[in-house]
Model the fold of this input.
Amino acid sequence: MKAFGGSVLFLDRSDINTDEIIPAKYLTEITKEDLKPYILEDLKLPGFDPKGAKTLNARVILSRANFGCGSSREHAPWVFEVNGITAVIAESFARIFRQNMFNCGMAAIELPKADLDLIFSHSSDVDAEMTIDIENETLTMHGGGKQKTFKFEISPFDKALVLAGGWVDYADQKY
Amino acid sequence: MGKTTAEKIFEAHLVNEPFPGTKVLSLDAVLCHEITTPIAIDDLIRRGKDRVFDSTKIKAVIDHVTPSKDTKTATQAKILRDWARRHDIKDFFDIGANGVCHALFPECGFIRPGYTVIMGDSHTCTHGAFGAFAAGIGTTDLEVGILKGVCAFRQPQTIKFNVNGALPKGVYAKDVILHIIGRIGVNGATDRVMEFHGSTIDSMSMESRMTLCNMAIEAGGTSGICQPDMTTVDYLWPFIQGDFASREAAVAEYSQWRADADASYDQIIEIDVAKLEPTITFGYKPDQVKTVSEIAGTPLDQVYIGSCTNGRLEDLRIAAEILKGKKIAPNVRGILSPATPKIQQQAIKEGLIDIFMEAGFCVTNPTCGACLGMSNGVLADGEVCASTTNRNFMGRMGKGGMVHLMSPATAAASAIEGKIADPRNYL
Done:
């Protein structure tokens, strides 16, 4: 299983699409590692710098509704993975992106808006960090001298994929 | 309790249910292109599992960047080409025979009612026009599909769209689907199948139904689905005539995939097309739509007609009818990319290509190219394109570029005026 948790990158907008995560012109790269410099290159958000320290140090992304909409490109989870980001927390996900995350053994975790609002209130904390416990389906937000734990649910199938390290290994054993 | 089309297809293809709510289905068609497949091929080689579950059920095409524009795209094409040869995949389409996947594969008769279809491409939902369950998936799902012939899905709920009425002049399937997306939003159908019914759909050609289903993903939908009928059978007849005694017999057989009258739906949405106007996107999301009257006059730099949404013969005929004997405005660059070689050839025979070229259009070979800003018509920063494609995300057709999605008729009228224009003035 991959490691989950660490510094949080706050992306406070709904409908962040796969073209913003990794523009199509980079889909000609043949290895996942080659995608690394282009993470979130076309995302325009106030205060967000795709090449800034917050992006480069991030291990978790926090966002809003319909994250990962658009193209089916698995290059979107891959560009996160090669940058050390293994989990995205959002109010909801586009289906293909969500499945691509779990298929790679990564986590796409849905939380209600009220919980997200609480976590987003940590966005200016310099020490904002999240721990994630996939087995027990909880995550804890630390920052500004406070901490709070949230319960989440992922489907049993998606959990099995995370524990197996992805869909190829799982499917190869079972089908 | 009756069943929806997707429920019937799921039931017929169920391999097992490893966990409640997750269904693993057997696949009838695994479609591949050169952008999302090579990494799956590499991974299979790396794992020592360079095999395919059934070479007759795998179809592959080089379509996104073709002919290759540089070493990287040439390498992607080569990986796919070598793999297809290695595994004796007969339905592989290379230069001279290649076209946009979601136009080419249906044209070859590969998609049938009741099929399960996957491809590493979000617009795979197009193939639901044949009464199939067709879903875009990522490279890992594709890899497992190639190796094992299965894919896992959550049991989808279905939204039923009752689309009724005669399409007004200048209004087409593209306007209907843009209107629907505008109404339900970019995640209005997430984890849902969009099942289209009603007199408007019944009267639509297969080309129009494909346009409609193509954009289901822009509302988050897993698959668009139309009900198989005589129109479906007429389209497929050259490929299925040996299998059935008559067209009526084929319709009867395929009717098993039609939704039951008492099927249960997550939601039922009524659409009356009689009042629809030509519909166009204005922002960076496909649900940001306006009627042509609200947005006419917006200046343009480029007009693009093509793609898996609207690059078929019907689309070219509609646009050519408007462009006939006219010139496009000097401030715009017109680009036509017929979706397949067969469409291009037929358009030449019918004199459509002459009309486009005399109007001032550049005609490219069939490719996805400009739609996703990869080749053959990439925008410069600040440029605006009227496009018959399916996605208007910021920078989609080129960094800093703006895309207005519209029908081929609206695109043709807009090319003549050099700004967004009402096609009804030319019909």
Chain B has a mean pLDDT of 97.
